[in-house]
């Protein structure tokens, strides 16, 4: 839950959140709803999204469940069209969804490379392209692209992932330059270690409901990171933090 000082800070706004079925995406959906926003929830699993939507609705906000294959341009365009038809606006786009195929460069297939780039970089581009005209008509909006500390320093055995996240930085910089004259803010956020199952490489392991024994100084909770994203989205429209590294106090190896 976000700090009470930010409750209703986004009253009357609408946010699109990708990867909303678990982890940071789920926490962000609830944090944005607590701040007063209606939320459109994008991920593959309809059942998981419906669970998140029920929690959002208990907070008194509307939730739109949009099971979406983010590797499909048609699916993305259809999702944004539904958001516009039902909510009539998009004030925040949170590009949070991500995937990876681990392994050394010599073991990485072209198909795996394409999969990671499609989800991590192409999908945010397509979503941004679709919501940009809506934000222009509204006179502004906020696009937050979630990268990772890997997007700043690189990781071994994660070539496609790191390439996509470095690409997210360049995309955000170009988007900031293009959007500012329309009142559209573009930001990239690099979270450090987070207490989720993202480090597990199989879908089965990632779905396990295991609570990791981390203190708040060792690993960010998804809820704490989501609160920070709400703070970014609710900051005065005349200011923008274009790049932000947010990490637990005791993160190892950075800087």
Structural description of this entry:
This protein has 255 residues and is an alpha/beta fold. The protein has a single domain, classed as Rossmann fold. It contains 8 helices and 7 strands. A 7-stranded parallel β-sheet has the order 3-2-1-4-5-6-7, with helices on both faces. α1 (23-34) runs parallel beside α2 (46-58), α1 (23-34) crosses α8 and α4 (110-138) runs parallel beside α6 (159-179). The longest helix is centred in the middle third of the chain and has 29 residues, at 110-138. Mean pLDDT is 88; it is low at 199-207 and 209-216.
Entry summary:
Helix content is 44%, strand content 15%. It is α/β, with parallel strands linked by helices and 255 residues long.
Largest sheet: 7 strands, parallel
* Average predicted local confidence, pLDDT: 88
Q: Give me the strand/helix succession.
A: EHEHEHEHEHHEHHE
Can you identify the CATH class? Answer: Alpha Beta
The CATH architecture is 3-Layer(aba) Sandwich
CATH superfamily heading: NAD(P)-binding Rossmann-like Domain
Chain-wise SSE layout:
Elements: E1 14-18, H1 23-34, E2 38-43, H2 46-58, E3 63-67, H3 73-87, E4 92-95, H4 110-138, E5 141-146, H5 150-153, H6 159-179, E6 184-191, H7 203-207, H8 222-234, E7 243-246
Parallel strand pairs: 1-2, 1-4, 2-3, 4-5, 5-6, 6-7
